[in-house]
Write a structure and sequence with these properties.
Blueprint (H helix, E strand, L loop, with lengths): L2 H15 L4 E4 L3 H4 L1 H9 L3 E4 L9 H19 L4 H10 L9 H6 L16 H21 L12 E6 L4 E10 L5 E5 L5 E5 L3 E3 L18 H38 L1
Parallel strand pairs: 1-2
Antiparallel strand pairs: 3-4, 3-7, 4-5, 5-6
């Protein structure tokens, strides 16, 4: 599908269901072209793209796409009606406290081949949906990794090359308007947008040498050895002094006797 054809298809559905406040997409070329940007600006829709090469940032869409693909494969394999299968998906309640996606849009359940209730949608559905979303976010934040510190322009980092699984040096240019993303410049001058989890801070070592000399205290064993030698010398000196005094005393006694 061409860029112009994609914009026309979205305009057709929006004319039926109304304009959304924002559109969250990946970074496919069909969404980053000038035609799609012009369409979102003219229709007053905020366009947000997920982080490049980081499927977790677009996890909600990825999960629904996986569910739809699985349904399509099973339906075609069994020779079923694809449109009927999609109808059942849209009419199936999200959980025991939330109505179906179709009922959230139209405010009433849509008719299918299965029996369904006919009471209109209530305000509590919206509140329950918001509470469910908040609970899912809290569970994700509790089990996810610690929030990484922000980066600043001019900061040296390394960026992950998803295809090769290697890290390469780069410099932060600015923080992107997209969530958790930064614009970095590689050594060859290219500027790319990267998810924060694909950027690592690069700390440069301090090359200034310290010329001051540090005098360490003598080891304990060496100090004790020196102390032992000094003590032994003192004992020998005292013993020699006492011996000299005794000899002098004996000489005096002998002289007196003579």
């Amino acid at each position: 599908m061409t860029l112009r054809g994609l914009a026309q298809k979205m305009q057709m559905y929006m004319s039926l269901f109304g304009l959304p406040d924002e559109i969250l997409t990946d970074n496919g070329t069909q969404y980053t072209g000038d035609a799609f940007k012009k369409f979102t600006v003219e229709w007053g829709i905020e366009h947000i793209t997920s982080s490049p090469h980081y499927p977790k940032s677009n996890g909600c869409s990825e999960r629904h796409i996986r569910h739809i693909k699985s349904t399509v494969k099973k339906t075609l394999k069994n020779g079923g009606n694809l449109q009927m299968a999609l109808l059942q998906i849209r009419a199936t309640p999200i959980d025991s406290k939330l109505p179906s996606p179709a009922e959230l849009i139209f405010g009433r359940p849509i008719t299918t081949l299965l029996p369904s209730r006919t009471d209109p949608g209530r305000e509590e559905h919206r509140l329950q949906l918001e509470q469910r979303t908040a609970d899912m976010k809290e569970h994700h934040d509790r089990n996810s990794h610690k929030e990484l510190p922000p980066l600043h322009p001019g900061q040296h980092v390394t960026v992950l090359n998803e295809e090769r699984g290697t890290w390469h040096p780069a410099t932060v240019v600015e923080k992107s308007s997209e969530p958790r993303s930064y614009i970095v410049q590689t050594p060859n001058g290219n500027q790319i947008r990267c998810c924060r989890s694909h950027l690592r801070e690069l700390f440069k070592p301090n090359m200034q040498s310290n010329t001051r000399r540090i005098h360490f205290a003598e080891p304990l064993q060496q100090a004790e050895t020196h102390k032992g030698h000094n003590d032994s010398a003192e004992v020998i000196s005292e013993t020699a002094h006492e011996t000299d005094m005794n000899c002098e005393k004996q000489n005096r006694i002998q002289q007196t006797c003579v």
